[in-house]
Amino acid sequence: MTTTEREQQVLDRIERARRRRAKVREERITLSHGSGGKATHTLIEAVFLDAFRNPLLEPMEDAAALAIGGAQLAFTTDSFVVSPLFFPGGNIGDLAVNGTVNDLAVSGSRPLYLTAGFILEEGFPVEDLLKIVDSMKAAALAADVQIVTGDTKVVQRGKGDGVYVNTAGIGVSIRSGLGVTSVRPGDAVLVSGPIGDHGVTIMLARGELDIDSDIESDTAPVHGLVAGLLAAVPGVHAMRDATRGGVATILNEVAAGAQVSVIVDENAVPVRDEVRGASELLGIDPLYVACEGRIVAFVDGTQVDTALAALRSHPLGAEAAVIGRVADDPPGLVLLNTAFGGTRIVDMLVGDPLPRIC
Amino acid sequence: MTTTEREQQVLDRIERARRRRAKVREERITLSHGSGGKATHTLIEAVFLDAFRNPLLEPMEDAAALAIGGAQLAFTTDSFVVSPLFFPGGNIGDLAVNGTVNDLAVSGSRPLYLTAGFILEEGFPVEDLLKIVDSMKAAALAADVQIVTGDTKVVQRGKGDGVYVNTAGIGVSIRSGLGVTSVRPGDAVLVSGPIGDHGVTIMLARGELDIDSDIESDTAPVHGLVAGLLAAVPGVHAMRDATRGGVATILNEVAAGAQVSVIVDENAVPVRDEVRGASELLGIDPLYVACEGRIVAFVDGTQVDTALAALRSHPLGAEAAVIGRVADDPPGLVLLNTAFGGTRIVDMLVGDPLPRIC
């Protein structure tokens, strides 16, 4: 295939995507709608964005930017349905605190206040609830946030799965203007550490793979890491925490949102051996496997060295790496230069090979 | 029994309650922990408050009062697990929006921004989700709030019940100093309309009673009603929306929190005939049955006429009534002067005769 043919293919693809108005084709909800990938995006666009549309929602960032009475705030929420509830490195409690802390942090905010909503299943051991709540307490302390209000509901046995936790959070902006639409050609793409630890940990904890491993979830609050990066680098354009759908999903969101291409060097992506091995057995690219304490940062290319140094100076970013760059063409696509010297398109996650990962 | 004997009984009871440190005695979660009544309070105090304790959480009001960058904000959350999802007068969607709007409103705030978190069960009809989301859109419009961020998770069939919705909300304070601890002897107690409509509607919608009735849920946003009351009456001391656990639970929270007694005149409490009849069949006092669009207001006794007029001037308050007064003694108790001329203690709800009401 010549370059021209390939370009034409890409252009055709983009044009088809543009003509496609978001519509949920399925009559019923499937696990794929919760994957964070393609089906989730379609559901969100066709159902939620379409109904709730307003200028604060439309950027579809991890947190909404609000101006109230002179204060510049960020506001976000996440529900957590991870299974199992307890796993190496954490449990649903610290995951729920860190998840919302991280959504606020990567929006350029200092996380301040959290809510905690619990949906408990009848019969759930109070002792397990106490452990989860203790982890939330510790995670809130570590992230320097306060849980200021909450709610508790109970559903009958068989209508839940132990406990689901929702956290919402408010932060105060420390850097405005961050976001997908600020990403531009010439930006460098960095990750703050090895990817996929959380997702693989959950799969192993479910016993779905017969592997012994010491791997632990990377769940952690990234507010300090982010604050250090922002303090050192004026040219940070966007940050995301790579949860459901993994790094690949974020790169696709940025490519589509900023109408740029993102070109990733597979060899540069830090992946632990255990994660690579487990991913191979699962038949999934580590780029799609969730992290819960890793950020992806898009930074002015001229400041990449400072950015990498800033990330590496923080314990959570010790293994940070530059994994790619942003270019003009082809807009909307993520291209991977593979370890074998080829190039392939990295699309959004299709299906949900790893349900209930967070 | 002489007055002295009765007083001594009451004092003994209070002393016993004071000695009781909150502790969850059950090893496993029961539906009662979700009732909004006594078991819910114990769970919250023993588990959540004990772990998360901070000055913003401790007032245990419907919303936390936050000061951020010169802005005085209210922050709240609620998860909704109502069954059935659709019922006369509403569905889980408008219930979720109104519930959070109302928590903000009764805290003395103007509701501004909401989050929406969905936990969907695999197999849930997309058409039903669209209906729910449409109701949320309409409710947000009616309450003049914007849904600015959200989250969607999917759980396997049998791990949920169609859909659970969490909403969190931010409001901006329009009246500070409201709250349980501002209630004082001499205050009048008002309700904004007939109580128990929502709870009875849900029970009938479940087909648990063989009754034909036109009764509908009272789910509605009370922000306008509250704003009118606040504008007319400087002496509003506290407001609550009477949801799970009903009016009786709120009165108990206030009596305990302000260490006052609340004396209610049973004849003065507005209750529709259908609600009274259904409650009798269920063996439950309407005072414990949930409303979703009614407020209870504690107002300086000298301003009771203005307050009643202000409530009645709003469509949602047309049937408002003064139902009682606040006194010094016996502190911490709610006393009901019954329709038959007796007096009895109205305790918090014990057990959960109406699970998953919201």
Protein described:
Chains A, B: It comes from Amycolatopsis rhabdoformis. The structure is a homodimer of 358-residue chains. With 358 residues, the first copy, chain A, is an alpha+beta fold. The first copy, chain A, folds into two domains: 64-176, 60s Ribosomal Protein L30, Chain: A, CATH 3.30.1330.10; 180-345, Alpha-Beta Complex (Phosphoribosyl-aminoimidazole Synthetase, Chain A, domain 2). The first copy, chain A, has nine helices and 14 strands. The first copy, chain A, has a seven-stranded mixed beta sheet with strand order 9-11-8-12-10-13-14. Chain A has a five-stranded mixed beta sheet with strand order 1-2-7-5-6, covered by helices on one side. In chain A, strands 3-4 form a two-stranded antiparallel ribbon. Chain A is globular. Chains A and B meet through helix 2, strand 1, strand 2, strand 5 and helix 4 of A and helix 2, strand 1, strand 2, strand 5 and helix 4 of B.
Search tags:
homodimer; about 350 residues; seven-stranded mixed sheet; Phosphoribosyl-aminoimidazole Synthetase, Chain A, domain 2; 60s Ribosomal Protein L30, Chain: A
The backbone outline of chain A, from C-alpha atoms, is: globular
Give the end-to-end Cα distance of chain A, rounded to a whole number of Å: 41 Å
| CATH topology call of the largest domain in chain A | Phosphoribosyl-aminoimidazole Synthetase, Chain A, domain 2
Quickly count the domains of chain A: 2
Supply the CATH architecture of the largest domain in chain A.
Answer: Alpha-Beta Complex
The neighbouring-strand order within the major sheet of chain A is 9-11-8-12-10-13-14
CATH class of the largest domain in chain A: Alpha Beta
Q: If you compute it from the alpha carbons, what radius of gyration of chain A comes out, rounded to the nearest whole angstrom?
A: 20 Å
Helix content of chain A: 25-40%
Domain PurM-like N-terminal (chains A, B): 61-172
Domain PurM-like C-terminal (chains A, B): 184-330
Protein name (chains A, B): Hydrogenase expression/formation protein HypE
InterPro entries (chains A, B): HypE, PurM-like_C_dom, PurM-like_C_sf, PurM-like_N, PurM-like_N_sf
